[in-house]
Design brief:
By secondary structure, the chain is of the alpha+beta class. The protein has five helices and seven strands.
C-alpha cells in the first residue's frame, strides 16, 4: 500500500475480479477480526441483502454484524494499474500500514496487517474445531 492508501491487487486476482465485476468492488470491515473484506460488487449485493434481513431486535451480535459489515461498506474501483483506494477509516479499523497480507477466501479477499496475520496464524495453529464436512 502506498502513502495515499492505494493498494495494488495482486495480479493473480485481477483477471478474476475483472471478469466477475469489471473491477467494481466493495470493501468492508470483518465482523470478528481486524481485517478488511473485499467483495466483487454483484456478490456484495447478495451478501448485503441477507445481512439486512437479519432481525437485530434481540441480538447484539446481529447488530454488530450489521453495523460493521454494512456500516463500513465502501464501493471502490480498480484503476488501470489494478489498484484500489482504501479509506483512512477502513485502514484504521484493520490497522493497515505498508506491510499487508492479502488472502483469497472463496469468492472474496481479506486484507490483513502483516503482523496481525502472523499473530492470527500462531493463535489458530492449535485450533481443532474443523467442520465435520471436511474430507480429511
Amino acid at each position: 500500500m502506498d502513502a495515499k492508501g492505494r493498494l495494488a491487487i495482486p495480479a493473480r486476482y485481477r483477471a478474476a475480479l475483472d471478469s466477475a465485476c469489471q473491477g467494481h468492488l466493495v470493501v468492508t470491515a470483518h465482523h470478528t477480526e481486524r481485517c478488511l473484506l473485499v467483495y466483487p460488487e454483484p456478490l456484495w449485493k447478495d451478501v448485503s441483502e441477507h445481512i439486512n434481513k437479519i432481525s437485530n431486535i434481540k441480538s447484539i451480535t446481529a447488530r454488530r454484524l450489521q453495523r460493521l459489515l454494512l456500516g463500513y461498506a465502501t464501493q471502490v474501483e480498480m484503476d488501470a494499474n489494478g489498484r484500489i483506494l482504501l479509506s483512512p477509516t477502513l485502514r484504521d479499523y484493520a490497522g493497515l500500514d505498508k506491510g499487508l497480507m492479502i488472502t483469497g477466501v472463496g469468492d472474496k479477499l481479506e486484507i490483513w496487517n502483516e503482523k496481525s496475520w502472523s499473530l492470527w496464524l500462531d493463535e489458530s495453529a492449535n485450533a481443532d474445531d474443523l467442520p465435520d464436512e471436511l474430507p480429511f
